[in-house]
Design a protein that fits this description.
heterodimer; A: alpha/beta; Barwin-like endoglucanases; N-terminal domain of TfIIb; Rossmann fold; 5 domains; seven-stranded mixed β-sheet; 27% helix; B: Alpha-Beta Plaits; two-stranded antiparallel ribbon; 7 helices; 19% strand
């Protein structure tokens, strides 16, 4: 579409008028008067400058402004001791000199005077959201001694009474947390911020099929990209290199279809937008598979026969039919098993899948083998999707059957089954179609089902881990299950424990999952069978009160804990409930290392600069305040607690977690600074002459590029089969059913529902929000913005000012214009949004043509409640207040929150 | 002498606001002032609707109405094509602000900073020294960077590489070729202001 922009002036909305209007909706009245001011937490600004007259330097460092896995390398400009500008470092093959809004604005985060500037203790015994703790400055000695004393007592009684909450690991330098918790003796490390709300619980599924926890469309060669639920140019992954890959692909001719309830800001660049009802993505994809297999009869037979378990015979019990001999130990199923059988149609008999005498492998048909009726897995899949017709899907997804058929046809054509491509002399299968399901699509109770469906759509046309397809982010790593020749399931079944030991009740979930329930049990551990109370809570960066769900419940849970300490940069909600706060240095004041790899494509930049490397984070200014790096604070505490040195101590555990061996292993009896450890880590990876001194000047180091063959699973593992039938889940279901019965465990909403979630092929069941009571007539969803990402930048003055004044959507209740008209609502109306689970938020309506007619959307993670944060952080509606933290609203397999909800909307 | 101009490729712009913040950081503008903005606008009716983004800053017009209405000569069009404001001459009458068809001029009120109770941060102290209260300000194509041989901050930051900067007077320059080859156009041509900022259709 060739289209010209028109200019009709800027929105007649000044910052002042917006703030005034928004202020009326704030829960925290304190912020209404002076939004750029606020309670005086602490007095003066730090010196931070003035010294070093005449200085003018650029210092390489690495961003921590978002949770992207590939961080942008940066250059920080310091003049007379003051950070005046941040630009991208051209030496990085990731961002290649570019940088996004967040790092451009990071100056304001560094100089944010609402930071925690020195150790403090609370003087107000009252705790609660927005209740000023009346912080008082204390010495480091008092702060550390108080924390040590509390921890020592707990360690002596029962170390499990100490719970450590950390944020998104990729967004912090938190390397010491897990070694510290392990050395201390608590299993309770809670990955506590966005984790359970990000849909990432299904990451092992990407690992299973693609060989990496994250999958991406191979932008360089993709021709047809179905984007499901990712604000891909502005969300978590919307960093500089993904934007570049995307726009260049579109320039080359990539067609992008965005299937989403809203046209999220970045997917404005889609060629087609197909609005879908929330929580129905799995159904939509299975209808496409139905069309491919039952109407178009299109699939990649060669791929399915040789590279998948499609020909494996499945018995009526859902399990592989196996030969009697030889028996091989299966590490996933944990027994000696015969080889799976396939049907040789030429000789009309069943043989082992790897029998050298196989003339052909049947993908379809029904056979009788060893007296059992069986079908090849591909036939089972085909029969399974028969009921998922486009007509049936249309009813629930609101996408017409004709549209689904059209997309399936296009998918089939553009997959170019049978074609090859040669890159750098290496020939690959070429299947330039990709579907990626991200948070919006998969963060529901059917997280795994959506992932499975998306993988199947790709797998049946052979579009996996080859140029143009969805593939592992960076190079895949896969192992083969010796018992069946299929990619070994990376999910490991852990027998459930009842009574549970882990606060999050993860012990009831054999496949692990996220610790969302920890805050539910924290309120009353005994009620959940936990044999201990929570007596000390440590917080390092995570903000479950803002980023998860049910903020009041989380705040209430925190109130029950007798002692809380926080390692914090800002007085966010969890910090506000702490008793002692240890001030952390900003990422612009400390050391850290970030990996660099070709996440989006094997680009020329990666080919020439290298495909695996490390980007250094280093102080670009002297500490502005009396703060320290969190990693060092933990080592200090470990020393005081007697768990730093010797066997099982933090140092020894760091050697294991950081991979430090031989002469470069940490001396278990020595105390290190994080700067020293950073130096050792670099030398261990890159050699003795490539330590910190070298990297301080260069900023980034890359190992030579691996050949393009290594980048794609199709050529790195040419003989490995990937699953199109996930038989392990049949085994897991059987085990879990037996365990639940034997141990008398009752899961919610019911054991039957939980067991039904273990499926070898995806199913679709209505979600709680689809079954909401009458009157809750709309859905409410959440999306990320580029500038705030999720919750990390709500205290950045520039980003918040820009968003409040000029982003038409992010801080509003974004709703369909027709729907609003029918409800008598118009732009700017103040409304209540009330969810069927009892949550309520207030905000202002923004009517739009770019959102599904049954949906309202609330962006990012606004509406902080803490009394001592930068006051603009309080602006905007807080989406997460609409959702409940309760087992029935979690995906039974991953404990991911079902993120959308059903609501009613009315004028306030 | 080069006649500077900019080309913004709307097919590439994803509305990430990087240029907005790069400009903010480079020029250290006070609260309420954004020299460079990105407008999000909708076209079409649901469900055949979409959002599009238009970055807008000073157009450095060849016939700049702001220059004509300035009573003191503070606003002037330079030989390099850049429309500048001489802060010392500006009396803050704001006629230029009213005359601008693109609404890209800002007025520096008394500069208070972002964190009033705390005074100015070290960054703000350094940055606001360049902004005189009571005067009008706007994008100057990062003249101070051009003097150092660097491109404007928004061009360098753009992750989508949607911005191009160069000599409009040289038909072989990248900007001139993009305008000719991809039907570059200007906003509000009908205003007759002859902007030096061109857009490539999205």
């Amino acid at each position: 579409m060739v289209e010209k922009a028109e200019f009709h002036g800027f929105p007649k909305l000044t910052r002042r008028s917006f703030l005034k209007a928004s202020a009326a909706t704030l829960a925290v009245a304190a912020a209404t008067e002076k939004l750029f001011a606020g309670p005086k937490v602490l007095e003066a600004l730090g010196s931070g400058g003035g010294q070093s007259a005449g200085e003018d330097v650029w210092i390489p460092t690495t961003c921590l402004g978002c949770a992207a896995h590939n961080k942008c390398s940066l250059l920080a400009h310091r003049v007379n001791g003051v950070l005046v500008k941040i630009e991208g470092n051209p030496a990085s093959p990731v961002n290649q000199g570019r940088n996004c809004a967040k790092s451009n604005a990071a100056i304001m985060t560094l100089y944010n005077p609402y930071r925690v500037k020195f150790p403090v203790k609370r003087t107000n015994p009252q705790k609660g959201p927005g209740v000023d703790p009346k912080w008082a400055e204390i010495s480091w000695e008092e702060a550390l001694a108080t924390v040590t004393e509390k921890l020592k007592k707990v360690k002596g009684e029962d170390p499990r009474q100490f719970v450590f909450i950390i944020g998104h690991g990729g967004n912090q330098d938190v390397d010491v947390v897990r070694p510290f918790a392990a050395a201390f003796g608590t299993p309770n490390v809670i990955f506590g911020g966005t984790a359970a709300a990000c849909g990432g619980g299904s990451s092992p599924f990407n690992d299973w099929v693609n060989g990496e926890g994250h999958a991406r469309a191979d932008m360089r060669y993709c021709q047809f990209f179905i984007n499901l639920g990712a604000n891909s140019q502005q969300g978590a992954k919307g960093h500089s290199d993904e934007i570049q890959a995307f726009v260049e692909a579109r320039e080359r001719g990539l067609k992008v279809v965005n299937v989403s309830p809203l046209q999220s800001p970045s997917t404005a660049k889609s060629d087609e937008w197909i609005p879908i009802r929330p929580g129905t993505a799995g159904l939509f994809i299975m209808a496409m598979v139905n069309v491919l297999l039952h109407e178009l009869n299109v699939y990649d037979g060669q791929f399915l026969k040789r590279r998948s378990n499609g020909p494996f015979l499945i018995g009526e019990d859902g399990l592989y039919l196996r030969g009697d001999h030889p028996l091989v130990e299966d590490p996933v199923r944990r027994e000696k098993l015969g080889k799976p059988l396939v049907w040789d149609p030429v000789e009309a008999k069943a043989k082992a899948f790897d029998d050298p005498t196989l003339k052909d492998l049947a993908l379809e048909g029904t056979y009788t083998v060893k007296g059992m009726t069986c079908r090849p897995a591909f036939q089972v899949l085909k029969d399974h999707v028969r009921e998922y017709t486009p007509e049936k899907a249309a009813e629930m997804t609101t996408i017409t059957a004709a549209t689904i058929r059209g997309l399936a046809r296009e998918w089939a054509e553009k997959a170019q089954i049978g074609s090859t491509i040669t890159i750098d002399g290496q020939t690959f299968p070429y299947r330039p179609v990709a579907i990626i399901a991200e948070q919006g699509a998969k963060c529901h109770i059917d997280n795994y089902m959506v992932m499975m469906a998306a993988k199947l759509l790709s797998l049946i046309v052979g579009a996996v881990d080859c140029p143009g397809s969805a593939k592992a982010a960076a190079t895949p790593t896969m192992t083969v299950n010796p018992a069946d020749g299929v990619r070994q399931c990376p999910l490991s079944y852990t027998p459930i424990k009842f009574p549970p030991e882990h606060l999050s009740l993860q012990d009831l979930n054999p496949l692990g999952g996220y610790p969302a329930l920890a805050y539910v049990t924290m309120k009353d551990p005994k009620a959940y069978g936990l044999p201990y109370e929570v007596k000390v809570l440590g917080i390092f960066g995570g903000n479950p009160q803002a980023l998860l769900a049910d903020p009041d419940l989380v705040a209430e849970a925190f109130k029950r804990v007798p002692f809380i300490f926080a390692i914090s940069y800002t007085f966010d909600e969890p910090t506000e409930q702490a008793d002692i706060v240890l001030p952390e240095s900003s990422w612009l004041e400390r050391y850290g290392l970030s990996p660099v790899m070709p996440h989006n494509s094997y680009t020329e930049a990666f080919k020439s600069k290298g495909t695996a490397g490390t980007s250094l984070r280093q102080p670009v200014v002297k500490n502005l305040y009396n703060t320290r790096p969190g990693n060092e604070l933990l080592m200090d505490l470990a020393e005081r607690l007697g768990v730093l040195y010797g066997k099982g101590g933090v140092n020894e555990r760091l050697n294991a977690s950081l991979g430090l061996k031989g002469s470069l292993a940490l001396d278990p009896l020595k105390k290190y600074t994080w700067e020293e450890i950073t130096d050792i880590r670099l030398k261990a990876s890159y050699g003795s002459d490539r330590g910190l001194d070298w990297l301080k000047k260069q900023g980034i180091i890359m190992k030579p590029a691996y050949p393009v063959k290594q980048y794609y699973g199709a050529t790195k593992y040419p003989d490995l089969r990937v699953p199109i039938y996930f038989e392990e889940f049949v085994v897991f279901r059987k085990w879990l059913a037996a365990e639940l019965a034997a141990k008398g465990v009752r899961r919610k909403p019911s054991n039957e529902f939980v067991l039904e979630s273990y499926q070898p092929l995806p199913i679709w069941r209505p979600h709680p929000e689809h079954l909401a009571p009458a009157g809750f007539d709309l859905y409410c969803i959440n999306y990320k913005t580029m500038q705030q990402h999720y919750g990390t930048n709500t205290d950045n003055a520039w980003l918040m000012e820009w968003t409040a004044a000029y982003d038409p959507y992010a801080m509003r209740i974004w709703m369909n214009a027709d729907t609003a008209r029918k409800k008598g609502l118009k732009d700017g109306d103040t409304v209540w949004v009330e969810s069927f689970t009892g949550g309520k938020v207030q905000g202002q309506v923004k009517t739009s043509e770019c959102v599904h007619h049954e949906v309202v959307a609330i962006g990012a993670c606004f509406g902080n409640r803490s009394a001592n944060m930068f006051p603009m952080a309080r602006l905007g509606p807080h989406f997460n207040a609409l959702n409940r933290l309760s087992e029935e609203y979690l995906d039974p397999l991953t404990f991911n929150i079902d993120r959308d909800t059903r609501i009613k909307i009315y004028k306030a | 002498m080069a006649k500077y101009g900019m080309v913004i490729d709307l097919k590439r712009c994803v509305g990430c606001y990087s240029c907005v913040l790069a400009c903010k950081a480079e020029n250290g503008t006070p609260p309420g002032v954004f020299w460079n903005k990105v407008l999000a606008t909708e076209k079409g009716r649901y469900p055949s609707a979409h959002i599009y983004y238009t970055p807008v800053a000073c157009m450095h017009c060849d016939s700049p109405p702001c220059e004509g209405v300035c009573p003191t000569g503070a606003t002037y069009k330079g030989r390099d094509g850049i429309v500048s404001i001489e802060q010392e001459k500006c009396i803050g009458c704001r006629y230029c602000q009213v005359s601008c068809p693109y609404d890209v001029r800002s007025f520096n009120e008394r500069i208070k900073g972002y964190f009033q109770e705390f005074g100015l941060t070290p960054y703000e102290k350094a940055a606001y020294a360049r902004h005189k209260p009571g005067t009008v300000s706007k994008c100057d194509f990062c003249s101070h960077r051009l003097e150092q041989g660097k491109e404007p901050a928004c061009v360098v930051a753009c992750p989508a590489r949607a911005r191009h900067f160069g000599d409009l007077g040289d038909p072989t320059s990248e900007v001139a070729r993009l305008i000719a080859g991809r039907s570059g156009y200007r906003l509000r041509e009908e205003a007759g202001t002859q902007p030096s900022v061109y857009y490539l259709p999205g």
